[in-house]
Amino acid sequence: MKKRKRRANRKAIKYMQLSPEILLDLPKLSITGRDELFLENHKGLIEYSKYIVRAETSIGIIQLAGRDFELIEMSSDCIIVYGEIESLVFIGEGMN
User: Fold this and answer.
1) Cβ–Cβ under 8 Å, residues 82 and 67
2) Residue 64 pairs with which residues in a beta bridge?
3) How far apart are CA 65 and CA 1, in angstroms?
4) N- to C-terminal Cα separation, the chain
5) Dihedral of CA 61/41/28/32: which sign?
6) How confident is the model over 57-86, as pLDDT tens digits?
């Protein structure tokens, strides 16, 4: 049932040319090269170190692994991490 509802919502959003990440409470990731990540529409930071960053989102945990991570910015809307990104993994079902 959830999948059908999401599919219908996506079609309506596309038809109305609206921003799906905001209306469907989805995270938006932007990666620049291998050294910068922007994560918008998150639910909070779970873990942060020089080697790992984990953030909660509506679709589950996003885990970033690498080296020399620096948390450049963190607000209620956005997390910006700089460092050498080696992997990005989606974990779990999320907070739905």
Assistant:
1) no
2) 53, 88
3) 34
4) 13
5) negative
6) 988 999 999 999 999 999 988 999 999 999
What span, in angstroms and rounded, lies between the C-alpha atoms of 83 and 52? 10
Place of tokens 């960053």: 53
CA distance 41 to 61: 12
The overall pTM is greater than 0.85: no
**HEC profile of 4-64:** HHHHHHHHHHHHHCCCHHHHCCCCEEEEECCCEEEEECCCEEEEECCCEEEEEECCEEEEE
What pLDDT band is residue 96 in, cutting at 50, 70 and 90? very low
